[in-house]
Amino acid sequence: MGSGELSIWNGHFDDEIRIDYFLEPLTSPRLIEGPESEEVEYGTPIDDDMTIEIEDIEENEENSETNASHRVDYLLAAGCGLIAGAIDSLWVGKFDFDRAREWGSERINDFVVAVAKMDPGYKGDDIKSAIKFLEKKYPFVGDRATSEFGGGRQHHLRDFSHHMSLGGLAFSLLTQFTGKVYGTDQHGVFMAVPVADEDLIGRTVEEKLMLGVVLWFYHMVSDMAGSSGSPGKGTGIPGPILSFMKQLSALPIFKDAMLDEASFRKMLSKLFNGTLLKTVGEDGKKIYRRFDLRAELGIAHELARQSVPVLVNECLVCVCYAARRLYEMCADGEVQDFKSLLSVDIGALMPHGSPLGTRMVTIATGVFALTDMADGLIRALMHGDWRIDPKTVSNFLLHVNVVGAIRFVFAVHTDYKVHAEARQETCSRAKFENQGNGYGDDSSVMRFFELDEAQTNLMISIEYQAARIDIEQTKNKETREKKEREFRDWESANCSECALRDKEEFINEVHRIQKCATPLWQELVALEVSQFMPYRSKKLKYDAATLDKVCDDLPGFEGKKCQI
User: Which of 559, 557, 564 is nearest to 462 (CA)?
Assistant: First the structure.
């Protein structure tokens, strides 16, 4: 008799126990094998024709995430995390605000000089002359209200049109069309100051747009590196982050917030002035650290430096995953030469989207984050003489790779999502295999019948064509639409991996199968097709006579054989 599989679920979706068994006739009665005493007391004669003998029990590790093959993948992922952690420790190191602002200042100074050189009238080659040239050639209407917004040091923050952001551009245009400069007073309260001198206010729409955009941009360039009196070091302009927070602080919900030294409005003012992040040097001199466009640009560069080991980690995981998959393909015989190598789907070599790949990314990013934090903790304790105090904690936090920590959080979320979907799909597939799909097509029955892939494709093609005929001949429009909707469910569940055939291909396929299969397969197909129900709803009737229209010309299926 035929062989089969008995699947037992042990509570783990990814582990499967498979018991292989076979049935064979006996020439004489036998007892179930066991100890001699048990045979006498409990032994029971078995039917003369057959007995059941368990050949072997083995664990199916094809989808197990704890098997040896996957353990190698996880060890490789952990190794990738360690390598990335070493790169972060040796090359990236500690986040340094002073280094960030110095880098940002150098880039800003070079940019200001480069913009000034674009004008044929500029003949200099240093930051001081460039600022002076741009300030003189591109005056800005916002400077007409400097005193109302706190003077030279404060008006860059309080005057919204002096912000290097989309909000600053919007307020610059608003000034052109309303004749008022918008910002906040010393208490952070929103106000609008009328412009007394309207020389820099356009008279036509074109002039307003030109003055509000072009002059605003060139004036921001002249102010971002400080004034001509203190080039490269003086008060700059807020960047996009500080600009957004300052404009947000003008909302009524922050009313009277300046009364508290730790308030949001007060904090922004101290952040821009440099008093919030000030430190005292070894010589006792105060060091002010302004948070302006130069600082924001430098911080972005520091984060870019931190992202390098994160990207290296990601690339290493991709390489390891792809190498392991190629090795498995070569071991299984899927890849045998260069031609077959070129035909490999690139998507199958990428870790993203597969449960194993996402788990490898999670392990790699987790190991990287742990390595980075361990390195930062050791360095902070060594610098603080192995004492835990606020300075040690601050030093530790500055060593943490922020980009790597954020990437680990996203990796955990993606890993949970992908594995949840995989478990749901496994559960649905197990339910489908054990209970059928609701349409009369039970894959466990198909395994018992032992239809091969070609015969199964032919059977599904017959069912598909019969259902299409049934839908087309339905006269009631509403009923036809309901049938169409429910049939799409059957189609998505059964036809996604099936090669559907037309009538001419039917005949050729039947002849081809008949050459290499016993006639029994036609009886099995006919039996399965006779139980076919394309619609879940019992109210939607299916005309089984449509099978005759599909099967009449098929050798071995004519004469209503499918209507059992």
Answer: 557
| pLDDT beyond 80 at 152 | no
The pLDDT, as a whole number, for residue 33 is 46
C-alpha torsion sign, points 146, 152, 158, 160: positive
Structure tokens belonging to residue 129: 């002359």
16: three-class secondary structure by DSSP: strand
Mean pLDDT of the chain: 79
Tokens of 452: 């091969």
Distance separating alpha carbons of residues 289 and 327, to the nearest angstrom: 54
Amino acid of residue 291: F
Tokens of 121: 């009238």
Do residues 368 and 411 touch, judged by C-beta distance below 8 A? no
Helix residue spans in 211-343 (DSSP H) = 216-224, 240-249, 264-273, 293-332, 338-342
For residue 236, give both structure tokens. 């700059």
Strand 279-280, strand 50-60: pairing: unpaired
7's tokens: 């699947």
Q: Are strands 50-60 and 286-287 parallel, antiparallel or unpaired?
A: unpaired
The whole-number pLDDT of residue 76 equals: 93
* pLDDT tens figures, 316-344: 999 999 999 888 888 888 778 888 888 77
**311 within 8 A of 87, measured Cβ to Cβ:** no
Q: Which two tokens stand for residue 278?
A: 């000030």
Rounded CA separation 360/351 (Å): 8
Spatial distance between the Cα atoms of 156 and 236, rounded to a whole number of angstroms: 7
Query: How many residues can be counted in the chain?
Result: 564
pLDDT at 231: 75
Dihedral sign for Cα 460, 465, 468, 473, please. Answer: negative
Distance, in Å, from the CA atom of 300 to the CA atom of 188, rounded to the nearest integer, reads: 28
How far apart (Å, rounded) are the C-alpha atoms in residues 96 and 77? Answer: 30
Strand, coil or helix: 337: coil
CA proximity to 420, closest of 352, 355, 356:
355
Q: Which helix (H) or strand (E) holds 528?
A: helix 520-530
